[in-house]
Amino acid sequence: MSKAAVNMLGMTLAVDLKPQGVAVGLLHPGFVATDMTAKYHGMDGVIGPEQSADDLVRIMTTQLSMETTGTFWHRNGSVLPW
C-alpha cells in the first residue's frame, strides 16, 4: 500500500469512526535512525526509535481528541498539512 493510500485510509477511518467516539491520529515518526535508513539511504537518521516512539505516544495522549481526529502530526508536535 502506498503512503498516499495509507493516509487516505487514516482519513476514511477518522470520518467513519467519529460518530462512534473513536479518534484517529496520523503520525510521521521523523527521520528515525534504523538499519533500514542506513542501508537504503546511506544516512543515520536524526532521532532514535525510542525517542520517536515516546514523542508519538505524547502526541496521542495530549493532542488527539474528537476535535483533532484525522490530523496528521510530525513527531515534534507540529501539524503537517495535507
TrEMBL record:
Could you name the domain of life of the organism this protein comes from?
A: Eukaryota
Cite a single GO MF annotation: oxidoreductase activity, acting on the CH-OH group of donors, NAD or NADP as acceptor
SUPFAM superfamilies attached to this UniProt entry:
NAD(P)-binding Rossmann-fold domains (SSF51735)
- Organism annotation: Gonium pectorale
InterPro entries documented for this protein:
NAD(P)-bd_dom_sf, SDR_enzymes, SDR_fam
Write down what this protein is called: Uncharacterized protein
Q: Which PANTHER family match?
A: SHORT CHAIN DEHYDROGENASE, SHORT-CHAIN DEHYDROGENASE/REDUCTASE SDR
Gene3D superfamilies with a match to the protein in the record: NAD(P)-binding Rossmann-like Domain
